[in-house]
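Standup notes
- DV: blocked on the single-chain target, sequence here:
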Amino acid sequence: MASDSARFDHRTALVTGGGSGIGREAALLFAARGARVVIADIAAGGGESTAKAILEGGGEAVFVRTDVTRADEVAAMVDAAVASFGGLDCAVNSAGTATFVRTRTHEFTEEEWRRVIDVNLTGVWLCMKREIEPMLQGGGGAIVNLSSIYGLVAAAGTAAYTASKHAVAGLTKTAALDYAKRNIRVNALSPGYTRTAMVEGVVSSKPEIEDWMVGRTPLGRMGTPREIAEAAVWLCSDAAAFVSGVILPVDGGVVAQ
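- DV (later): unblocked, structure below
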């Protein structure tokens, strides 16, 4: 049983990208610790599956199909949270995308640049824009954004992804200052190389990429979505009540090098 400071009884948590990977694990953890959970994802199958798992476990959950790059769908997502559960207390903005083909900065197409920035940066901002409103009305809340180790360092050939994740870190710090006096804490996670389904799809066809990731990680392995989700849920909990404006690496030691 989680300690009282790690519980979310009578609170509502929203998780974008909740149909798979880190987002799914965060949604399941919130539910296990007493939260009513709103799962948002562009992929209906995964999102519905997460909601079903929570409901079958005796929890409360709803799924809202959401494209985080569309302001109207993001607004509807937050409206659904308020309509279903009366407010919003926590949000984990984990919806994101990546490019696994290394492309030099001047060779990125405008289409690919805009796709990555729209999902990873503008999508996070649109979500925060709507999530903050009910938190202000409810007297406070906690938001966790998903950045990356590439929000703290860089790698050749990742201009769009690295730019988006550095920007999420800056956006997180700014929002933390904007709303500190209103009892809204805003933090970000910087996951390292994590064994999500998206990454698995790459390393299964190119084992040398996994060897490279593990070789760069001092702890000698890749992380799991559950390990990243544990940190996200902790940042939303009362156990982290004095933590705001932090960009927290959960990376097996990568950025310590």
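- Follow-up: Helices lie at 21-32, 44-56, 71-85, 110-138, 159-179, 197-203, 207-216, 225-236.
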